[in-house]
């Protein structure tokens, strides 16, 4: 599974940001399982959609699991706990 | 034993409580008595405050509360670290947020006689230490959230008064024109916050338009990026240019307006990019009028905001500034000619009649065709 995290918006929206990519082959078995569980959870229980607040960050997580390719999206103030954990995990692992 | 009856203190009407005093169960009698005593005490306290006139002063005055998120990305479990009139915290972020919220409140009160964000004394709640190395500050519709920065590019976002003024400016816009956060109205929303953020800083420093730096966010960068800022109202497009951040993409003129998608990737139609155009118009007006920017220029801009609707575009807003200046200072005034000149220099014709779309000047249109 390959996960690509992109962040948008914020008061510094125009400052260059690079996407962060995490491949589960880089992880130990437990972490890879945790990554798959979080992705699956966010896919089943996505954040509610609503208008963005001024300067609020938004996130897009692009998933390629070998069979399927899809994207998960959310705004900062309405992310689910699992979505937050997924973002943290991608950031910390890379 | 108290837990099952704890909720009685907030929902049970007095006649039921009095009836409960006759209950055979001593626990029910005790809870009812406790509730009635507490209610009576609160009622007496409120009456005393009203009679002394104290309550009238409390409602609608400056009410700041700073919470510590403890590096969590949730405000629900945040802890109060300093509230209005409270002593200084040992945490610098808490004090900076408290002071910044206070300076912004004082600015709006002194300059525009506005009582907080909603003009009805709305509480100013700031949440510091949000997330881990979080590179942002934002207004969530009710509260201000501050990250600590990653320490590499950005430092603590509470350290910048213009950033605090900017975010609370979004609150002011929300409670006035409520500008839609998309395309030109969204860029105006961002620009209003830059204007108000800069004015708060200039007012706090007692600076003239000429002396001001017209930079937004210069204080949130680590020393590695000394001298940089997020935006320059004086010279949009020059705030930063380095390998880590890229180059500031803000235009200063309609001929360079950046057409972007109304999506997250497109910054909702370039709201943080095209805000450079009205930002520069404000700078040009303020420096043309001279003196303190929060006086004539600030009042023209804020009154125009209050006359605007949620989907106003650049030309529509420019028209409102023209109308406000003509009404306040007279059609042949220096203020009106300065408003026209400022908008004209960024490629927008300011006339009294509101337009549906931003209209570029003939020169800008010809250049855009090339």
3D structure, described in words:
The complex is a heterodimer of chains A (94) and B (370). Chain A is of the alpha+beta class and 94 residues long. Chain A has helices at 29-44, 81-93, and strands spanning 2-9, 20-23, 57-64, 69-75. Chain A has one domain. In chain A, 31% of the residues lie in helices and 29% in strands. In chain A, a hairpin with a 4-residue loop joins strand 3 (57-64) and strand 4 (69-75). The longest helix of chain B has 27 residues, at 26-52. In chain B, helix 6 (161-174) packs across helix 7. In chain B, 45% of the residues lie in helices and 8% in strands. Chain B has helices at 8-11, 14-20, 26-52, 54-58, 92-112, 161-174, 183-205, 267-270, 276-289, 296-307, 314-329, 334-345, 362-369; strands spanning 64-68, 79-83, 124-128, 137-139, 144-146, 215-216, 231-232, 241-242, 246-247. In chain B, the strands form 3 sheets. A 5-stranded mixed β-sheet of chain B has the order 2-1-3-5-4, covered by helices on one side. In chain B, strands 6-7 form a two-stranded antiparallel ribbon. In chain B, strand 4 and strand 5 form a beta hairpin. At the A-B interface, strand 1 and strand 3 of A face strand 4, helix 6 and helix 7 of B.
What's this entry about, in short?
Chain A has 94 residues and is an alpha+beta fold. Chain A contains two helices and four strands, in the order E-E-H-E-E-H. A four-stranded antiparallel beta sheet of chain A has the order 2-1-3-4, with helices on one face.
What's the topology here?
The complex is a heterodimer of chains A (94) and B (370).
Chain A: E1 2-9, E2 20-23, H1 29-44, E3 57-64, E4 69-75, H2 81-93
Antiparallel strand pairs in A: 1-2, 1-3, 3-4
Chain B: H1 8-11, H2 14-20, H3 26-52, H4 54-58, E1 64-68, E2 79-83, H5 92-112, E3 124-128, E4 137-139, E5 144-146, H6 161-174, H7 183-205, E6 215-216, E7 231-232, E8 241-242, E9 246-247, H8 267-270, H9 276-289, H10 296-307, H11 314-329, H12 334-345, H13 362-369
């Amino acid at each position: 599974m390959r996960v690509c995290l992109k962040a948008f918006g914020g008061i510094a929206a125009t400052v260059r940001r690079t996407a962060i990519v995490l491949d589960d082959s880089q992880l130990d078995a437990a972490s890879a399982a945790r990554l798959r569980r979080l992705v699956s959870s966010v896919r089943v229980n996505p954040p509610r959609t609503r208008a963005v607040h001024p300067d609020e960050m938004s996130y897009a997580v692009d998933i390629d699991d070998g069979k399927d390719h899809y994207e998960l999206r959310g705004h900062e103030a309405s992310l689910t706990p699992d979505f937050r954990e997924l973002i943290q995990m991608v950031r910390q692992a890379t | 034993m108290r837990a099952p009856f704890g909720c009685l203190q907030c929902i049970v009407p007095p006649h039921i409580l009095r009836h409960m005093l006759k209950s055979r169960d001593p626990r029910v009698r005790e809870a009812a008595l406790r509730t009635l005593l507490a209610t009576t005490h609160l009622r007496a306290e409120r009456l005393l405050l009203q009679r002394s006139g104290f309550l009238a002063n409390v409602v609608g005055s400056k009410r700041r509360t700073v919470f510590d998120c403890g590096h969590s990305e949730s405000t629900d479990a945040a802890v109060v670290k300093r509230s209005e009139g409270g002593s200084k915290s040992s945490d610098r972020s808490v004090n900076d947020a408290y002071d910044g919220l206070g300076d912004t409140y004082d600015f709006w009160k002194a300059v525009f006689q506005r009582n907080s964000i909603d003009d009805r004394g709305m509480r100013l709640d700031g949440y510091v230490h949000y997330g881990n190395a979080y590179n942002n500050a934002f207004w969530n519709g009710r509260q201000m959230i501050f990250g600590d920065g990653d320490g590499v590019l950005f430092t603590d976002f509470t350290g910048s008064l213009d950033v605090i003024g900017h975010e609370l400016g979004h609150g002011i816009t929300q409670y006035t024109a409520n500008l839609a956060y998309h395309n030109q109205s969204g860029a105006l929303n961002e620009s209003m916050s830059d204007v108000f953020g800069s004015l708060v800083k200039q007012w706090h420093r007692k600076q003239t338009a000429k002396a001001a730096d017209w930079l937004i966010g210069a204080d949130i960068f680590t020393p590695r990026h000394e001298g940089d800022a997020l935006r320059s109202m004086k010279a949009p497009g020059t705030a930063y240019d380095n390998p880590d951040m890229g180059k500031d993409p803000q235009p200063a003129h309609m001929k360079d307006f950046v057409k972007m998608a109304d999506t997250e990737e497109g910054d909702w139609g370039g709201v943080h990019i095209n805000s450079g155009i009205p930002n520069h118009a404000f700078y040009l007006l303020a420096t043309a009028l001279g003196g303190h920017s929060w006086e004539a220029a600030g009042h023209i801009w804020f009154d125009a905001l209050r006359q605007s609707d949620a989907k106003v575009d650049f030309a529509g807003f420019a028209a409102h500034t023209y109308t406000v200046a003509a009404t306040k200072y007279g059609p042949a005034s220096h203020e009106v000619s300065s408003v026209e000149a400022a908008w004209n220099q960024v490629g927008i014709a300011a006339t009294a009649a509101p337009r549906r779309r931003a209209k570029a000047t003939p020169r800008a249109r010809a250049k855009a065709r090339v």
